[in-house]
Structures are given as structure tokens and as C-alpha cells.
Amino acid sequence: MELLLTRVYHEAGTNGTLTIAGKVQCFTIELPWKDNASEISCIPEERYQLVKRTSVRFKKHLEVRNVEGRSDILIHCANDALLELRGCIAPVTRHTRPGCGTQSRAAFNALLKRVYEAIDRKEKVFLTIQSLKNQQHEGE
User: Fold this and answer.
1) Which 3 state secondary structure label does DSSP give 80?
2) What is the pLDDT of residues 80-139, one digit of tens each?
3) How open is the CA angle 114-87-126, to the nearest 5 degrees?
4) In sequence order, which residues have a C-beta less than 8 Å from that of residue 73 and are 6 or more positions away?
5) What are the pLDDT digits (tens) for 124-135?
6) Among 103, 125, 105, which Cα is nearest to 114's?
7) 136 alpha-carbon distance from chain centroid
8) Topology at the third CATH level for domain 2-131
9) What is the separation, in whole angstroms, between the first and last Cα of the chain?
10) Residue 132's pLDDT is what?
11) Can you tell me the mean pLDDT for 71-78?
């Protein structure tokens, strides 16, 4: 299964659209781009494998594997990137402003169901992250 996350960068946070097979699954929020600095930046544009992960804090969620220079990059619920994320990705139902959205749990649960079903069928799941064509990071 291939997921595509297309980002728009802002100083206050990164907004994205997550598609599967060309159809919008949900929207996403992340921290702003700060050169992949641990816990304060979103991760680089690249192709990553997603795997199942469970923790006491987040219960069932997803781990983004092999992020260069980073560890414990997850996909989990959050509605405000600056307050709730440390480099992770949060699905949301709708963006409200850069790095913020609504109804994260609903968007997350729908995404998790699809991805877990694919993994249970022994499919590998990949997430490709890109920005809108010809877009530059703010401030460049």
C-alpha cells in the first residue's frame, strides 16, 4: 500500500493532504520545517515504511521507519502540532490554521483501520512525503 503526503509549509506548522490510491484519506498537521532538528521539525521529504506500533501513551498507532537522524517518529492523534507533536505526524479531519486541525481521533482511526488491514494482509505500507510542486519553504 502506498500513501502520499503532500505538504504545504508555514512558519507556524506544516499542513498536509494524505491520499491513498489518488483519493484523499485525511489531512495532516506537523511541526514547521527546521532542517530536521530533533523534536522541533517535521521530517524530511522521503519515502518511509510504516509499521504497527503500540505504547501505553498512544495505544495502537503507526511508526515511520528509518528517518535519518531521528527515532520514534509516529503517526498519532493531535490537533495542535506546536503543543502536541515532537516531530510526529497527526491526521486531522480539517485544517483550522497552519499546524492545527480538528477531529484528529476520527481521522486517525479511519487511517489506522486501513493501514492495519493492509499490514494484516502481509502488505508492506509506504508513506511518500513531498511538497507542492515549485513551492519553497517560507523564509527562503
Assistant:
1) strand
2) 999 999 999 999 999 999 999 999 999 999 999 999 999 999 999 999 999 986 444 443
3) 35
4) 43, 63, 64, 67, 87, 88, 89
5) 999 999 998 644
6) 125
7) 19
8) L,D-transpeptidase catalytic domain-like (2.40.440)
9) 34
10) 80
11) 97
pTM for the full predicted model:
0.92
Helix (H, G, I), strand (E, B) or coil at 71: coil
- Eight-state DSSP code of residue 42: P
pLDDT at 61: 95
Closest listed residue to residue 35, CA positions, set 128, 133, 137, 129: 137
What is the reported pLDDT for 133?
Answer: 63
Please compute the mean of the pLDDT values over residues 43-58 and round it to a whole number: 94
Domain boundaries, the chain: 2-131
Mean pLDDT of 16-43: 97
Cell 502481509 found at: 122
Strands (E) in 56-135, as ranges, are: 59-64, 74-75, 90-92, 94-97, 100-102, 125-131
Phi, psi at 48, each rounded to 5° = -130, 150
